[in-house]
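User: quick one, sequence for these tokens?
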């Protein structure tokens, strides 16, 4: 195969590929037309964070079978476009975790003790001993935003240096937080208010983009910010202002919204903001790990073998696909609805199959349900990596089957729980191709899962549905469809509304303020 490498990787990876008989070409820092020319005859492409792998790149590379990301974050790769072009995308999720964690710890100390600033002064001939009075991490509280592989390792290290750990990560279990002695809190604001330092370790997703702005930074009053995850999660001008105005004592950043960081960035003008040029993964060990793991995956793909860290789903074999194909999206949708209605720290996901579907090999369907469950928290999730994500997050997955299926030919139920509270969403396919949600918890309904949905639990009292319609109508939000289900007259009812657009938060609050309404939840299913 011709393997094109467009960001520098360790020689060990290049050598491994060459020894396996592949033709390796390096073309660092190519972009635009030069990149399109370079990929034209490539069978494999290896990148780090420096190359934007867009739809245009895939369109220009008809022979490409795999993109290997020698590192973790794949926000620079258009995975949907890769899937459309039948190209596998695989990353190296383990090899640089320690390096990233150590850099985060180093940056916390560097900002707390003004090491780069003091270094600069001394190198320019000034013994500015009296000007630097730092902060100890001992007995302080560290807020870890995103408690995945890197976040956990940072917590372990700084916890060992005397810090109390508090974490905000809506998608991990209580058990996982307990295992690291971290206090798991339910909202970001709480995490910030309790912390002296915060360190960011989430991926960049639509949900995390700009999640920390002026208001959030104010809650960390007098504290420090470390970001070695991705630029774009913290609002950069707001951070520059907060440090400049003394709201924060300092910030240490390894990643930026635009990389390389432009000369005119406001971050560069503030003395107490220290910066490194995306060096989190830049250690010898990490680079060797990710380069060899990426090389192994390219070699596997070339040999037609399974690719260990593939991020986009390979196709199912035809016979299985015929049987379970119609249920993949349904399981994904039921998972998405269940997790959004649940809204807590799940520790368990149960997928139950009833009727004809229970006779089939449902492993891939369960994986699709997990994909739905993790979709709001992880852009890179797919049916291939979802079971591993469940393991990483300490979430138990159980699958059960029964032959009987009430009134339907086949039913899939996804239940998300934290061991005490749970939400169950049950769906079927009408006529094999019309998905319907037929039960939410104990409420029988018949909702079309699509786009923007509002799920309202309310007391079954006259005028309630009219009230909901009026509130939405006054906000100019069109109701495309609705279904109301109730268990007993005057008891609790549940209604599902398909809306043409997302309702603003104040509309949801207005509905929730009414005494007849128990809870309103907005559920986003996207355009799929
Ligand atoms: N500076 C550098 O050179 C490096 C940066 N990274 C970056 O570090 C980040 C974390 O990497 P890993 O720990 O391996 O990822 P991971 O996938 O193991 O963990 C990410 C965690 O973020 C959580 N999360 C997702 N959405 C969230 C939200 N809205 N609020 C709070 N938590 C949320 C997830 O539940 C998960 O636990 C990635 O962005 C990665 O690209 C990783 C390695 C090197
Ligand atoms: O692995 C990651 O997510 C990183 O951010 C490391 O990026 P790099 O490979 O150094 O460009």
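Assistant:
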């Amino acid at each position: 195969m011709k393997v094109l490498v467009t960001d520098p990787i360790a020689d060990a990876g290049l050598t491994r590929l060459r020894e396996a008989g592949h033709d390796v070409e390096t073309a660092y820092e190519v972009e635009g037309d030069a990149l399109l020319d370079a990929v034209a005859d490539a069978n494999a492409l290896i990148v780090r964070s420096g190359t934007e792998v867009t739809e245009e790149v895939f369109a220009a590379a008809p022979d490409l079978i795999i993109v290997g990301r020698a590192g973790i974050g794949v926000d620079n790769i258009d995975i949907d476009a890769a899937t459309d072009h039948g190209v596998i995308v695989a990353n190296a999720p383990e090899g640089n975790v320690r390096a990233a964690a150590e850099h985060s710890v180093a940056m916390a100390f560097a900002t707390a003790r003004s090491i780069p600033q003091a270094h600069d002064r001394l190198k320019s001939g000034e013994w500015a001993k009296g000007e630097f009075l730092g902060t100890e991490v001992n007995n302080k509280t560290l807020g870890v935003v995103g408690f995945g592989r890197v976040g956990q390792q940072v917590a372990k290290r700084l916890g060992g240096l005397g810090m109390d750990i508090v974490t905000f990560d809506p998608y991990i279990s209580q058990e996982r937080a307990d295992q690291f002695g971290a206090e798991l809190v339910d909202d970001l604001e709480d995490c910030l208010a309790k912390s002296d330092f915060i360190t960011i370790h989430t991926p960049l997703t639509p949900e995390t983009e700009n999640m920390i702005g002026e208001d959030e930074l104010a809650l960390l009053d007098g504290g420090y910010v470390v970001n070695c995850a991705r630029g774009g999660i913290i609002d950069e001008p707001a951070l520059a202002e907060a440090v400049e105005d003394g709201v924060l004592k300092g910030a240490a950043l390894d990643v930026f919204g635009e990389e390389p960081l432009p000369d005119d960035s406001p971050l560069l003008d503030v003395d107490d903001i220290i910066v490194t040029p995306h060096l989190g993964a830049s250690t010898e060990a990490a680079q060797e790990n990710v380069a060899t793991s990426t090389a192994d995956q390219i070699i596997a793909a070339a040999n037609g073998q399974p690719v260990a860290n593939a991020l986009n789903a390979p196709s199912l074999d035809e016979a299985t696909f015929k049987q379970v194909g119609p249920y993949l999206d349904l399981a994904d949708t039921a998972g998405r609805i269940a997790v959004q209605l649940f809204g807590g720290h799940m520790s368990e996901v149960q997928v139950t199959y009833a009727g004809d579907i229970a006779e089939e090999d449902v492993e891939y369907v369960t994986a699709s349900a997990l994909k739905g469950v993790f979709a709001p928290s992880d852009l890179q999730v797919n049916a291939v990596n979802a079971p591993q994500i469940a393991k990483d997050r300490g979430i138990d997955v159980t699958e059960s089957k029964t032959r009987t299926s009430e009134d339907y030919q086949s039913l899939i139920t996804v239940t998300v729980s934290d061991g005490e509270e749970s939400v169950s969403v049950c769906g079927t396919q009408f006529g094999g191709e019309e998905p319907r949600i037929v039960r939410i918890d104990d409420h029988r309904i018949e909702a079309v899962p699509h786009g923007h949905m509002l799920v309202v639990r309310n007391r079954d009292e006259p005028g309630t549905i009219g009230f909901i319609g009026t509130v939405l109508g006054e906000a100019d939000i069109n109701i495309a469809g609705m279904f109301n289900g109730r268990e007993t007259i005057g008891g609790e009812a549940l209604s599902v509304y398909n809306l043409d657009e997302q309702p603003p938060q104040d509309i949801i609050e207005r509905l929730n303020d009414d005494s007849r309404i128990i809870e309103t939840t907005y559920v986003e299913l996207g355009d799929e």
